Amino acid sequence: MKFRYIIFSAIVASAVAAHADTLRINRDQCRDMAIEASEDIAIARNSVEQARLGKKAAFTGYLPNFSGTATGMYRTPDSEFSGMTLSMKGLYMAGINLTQPIYAGGKIVAANRLASIGQKAALEQQRMTRMDVIANADNAYWNYIAVLAKVDMMRAYLAQIDTVYSQTKKSFEVGMITKNDLMRIDARRSQVVYQLSQVESGADLCRLALCNILGVSSDSAIEPLDKEIPVTQPQHLSADIADRPELSLLQADIDAKEQQVKITRADFLPTLGLQAGWSAYGNIKLKGYAEAPDGSMQPFSSNSKGNGWLVMASLSVPIFHWGEGMHKVRKAKLDVTNASLTLEKNRRLMRIEAQQTVNNVMTGYSLIESADVAMQQAQLSLDDMKVRYKAGLASLTDMLDAQAQWQTSWSNMIEARTQYQIYITDYLRATGQLK
Questions:
Q1: Alpha-carbon radius of gyration of the chain
Q2: Residue 201: which H helix or E strand, with range?
Q3: What's the predicted TM-score (pTM) here?
């Protein structure tokens, strides 16, 4: 009997009968479905798009702003002054303005760099979210396979108990043993039936958890296509955390706060801008009497209108703000210092975490080797005990103990292989390699 792999039987057949459709997936398909169904992934994608749009919006700070104005007015009654009447019934004004920033204290440049940092951070956040989703999917997938294997194991255990019960019953009928031995086996059988019921209930709970991660209906039957939990000896494990998205996010936070220092400083530096515009006005009516050359008063009227260009450069120089700028810049610089301290603290924690995952993988593999040996010994012991018990050379207690040891060894083997797969996923996530 080979124990490098656990061979699982098709134990989901009974579950299929209770469900209309069966979802048959392997681990990679499980990951893909989990990613597609994850709301967190969708939110992360939207954040990436928001960051991209934010970068485009920041770039427009380099470009001139165009604006247009139009005003119409109907004023009544007319204005009277010095014998003249001013009518603004139908007055109009219109114009086009262009504003081009030339120097804004470095604020526009810093804002664009900040937007670029935000875009990179959004991509790293998306990568981190993806790894979390994959890790949760792997955990649920392998645990579901493990609990299905335990259902299979408990059914095999129950079948062995039934066989021993049948043999013992025959011995009792011919007076070779007492009724107490028969009752002991019956009690053990009841215990195994109870354990089988618990494991089956656990399998359904694991199925529900997997359904939730995959985004499918809770009454969907799931049949894992990975009938084996592969085990390969770990090679070249490294605790390097350079590829962890969390590390990139913490560095991005430092970079962003450095740009915030520049933006804060820019509020207290000179700014230079250029404005150009064209405007037009019309329908300003003026009528009254004016003195003619001969001294007589002659009536007159006019309708004023016109247009023109205006070009203007403006320079604003902050002079004195009671040290406000210095205080704000110092405060922003302390944010940079705090972000750097946070990075160093979390870098140490991430290194410890990564090293722990390396140790877990190595320990997990050793446990599998021990579990394999224990299972082989338990199987040999059980096979020998079956022969001896059938020949009347072993007691019932010895037989039940051998079966219990076999069941425990098989359970340990399943758990060791399952945990090993979870350890590998944790290691890949802790070192930023989970994709």
A1: 41
A2: helix 179-214
A3: 0.83
